[in-house]
Amino acid sequence: DVFKQHDTFKLRWFTPAAEVPLCGHATLASAAVLFTACGNPAPTLNFETLSGTLSVTRQQDSQRQLLQMSLPLSAAVDPLPAQLQPPASKTFTAAAAAAAAAAAGNVDPADPDGDSPAAFPQL
Q1: Which residues lie closer than 8 Å to 70 by C-beta, 6 or more apart?
Q2: What phi and psi values does residue 8 have, to the nearest 5 degrees?
Q3: Pick from 40, 37, 50, 42: nearest CA to 10
Q4: Distance CA 110, CA 117 (A)
């Protein structure tokens, strides 16, 4: 059985509109299925993706199996392709966030303008 014998797999993720370069939850789920349902004995599984090789390592403690995944290091970019971007009128801007926080009484006295992440502990 190829799923039990190999430790490297090709993996791709899709939305209804486009292929996406990275989906951590689906990668962890794939590794969990290979480790548990397929009985793959490898200590680490490698997934070749558009983001590079992602590795998921199995760690066993006395009560449960833990999975640890490596993530690629890359520059911060908007993760949505242009065709999936919301219209500008629907974008939640920093000014809208500050107004919403002020209306809800969530204004940080140290940052009355609301442009600090500390002003939004619920986000």
Answers
A1: 54, 55, 56
A2: -130, 130
A3: 50
A4: 12
DSSP secondary structure code for residue 87 in this structure:
P
pLDDT digits (tens, 9 = 90+) for 76-122: 676 677 777 766 655 556 666 666 666 666 555 556 555 555 544 55
Among 13, 11, 17, 23, CA closest to 83: 17
**DSSP character string of 27-72:** HHHHHHIIIIIS----SEEEEEETTEEEEEEEEE-SS-EEEEE---
The residue type found at 76 is A
Q: Could you tell me the CA-to-CA distances from 86 to 19, 79, 112 in Å, in that order? A: 18, 12, 29
- Answer with the residue of higher pLDDT: 110 or 62: 62
